[in-house]
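Page 47, continued from p. 46.
Same chain as before, 336 aa.
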Amino acid sequence: MENKNLQIILHSRPTAGISELNFALQKSQIPFPQAGEVLLKTLYLSLDPYMRGRMYDTPSYAASVKLGAVMIGETISEVIQSNNANFSVGQLVSSAHGWQQYAISDGSNLVKLPEYAVSPSAYLGVLGLTGLTGYGALIRYGQPKAGETLVVSAANGSVGSIVAQTGRNLGCNVIGITGGQEKCKILETELSIKTLDYKDDNFSENLKKLTPQGIDIFFDNVGGDIAFEALNNMATHGRFLVCGTISFDRNLPQVKSIDRFPSAFSQVLIKRLKVQGFIFDELVDMKDDYHQQAVTWLHDGKLTFREHIVEGIENAPQAFMSLFKGKNVGKLIIKI
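Result:
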């Protein structure tokens, strides 16, 4: 075992947007488990867009990361020392010990990974937080019906791909929005859905052509111009689900532009739309149902997933920044 614990801490608050300079790599002593505790070695770390908001010291739905503290994040870890009768050495667990190689736990926040023939990293994506977010929100708030048109932004991402496949499996007409023809081809080939390239100059016109009867459900992971275009193409009584706003940083001063809110809000009235924002915590009660369904679909070849894996905890800041540049395809994970 190494004699140091590599950690990535929040070194400074963002001022003009997030930067790799907001993070710092530090080395600390590997902790020793006391009675009732276990020592965990991190194997995989999940990187997710929500972490950007936690870097700021501004009001939000969750607490900010303190300066000098280890960055938050979901992890898959191995128990390498145990003074807790409930956990044996070699046991794989999911936890939330953030951007570091080693951590101590009393076991209260650990979940043992079940025996299933997938990589342990899958429990950070398709069988983890992002998978449940996509499936749970679509089922609970989107209430999809066979034959309805479902449009998903960032459909190549870890949440969007689950939403697209769930809708497809339930008989919806699914259209995935992504950036670039290469990503479109991946979605068409691997997920068997229609696609739209938001970088195409004719995106607005193409969206209208693919949704002549309007959009029954729009699952938004992006916000910005894509969301506005979708809002103007919704069907009567459509459901507009807001999962993420990765296209802009709400903690930065917004550029003054034409106020499109009145126009957008009028669509909510005219079309009698249901607009629903949500966070993961509101879907936890669906975890068992989702896992049962996801495992069945995985076994039957009706659910696939991609992982974008970067090796080394020291590369986490740079990899995290790539999330906001659309460079990843699938779930972004650090292998440690």
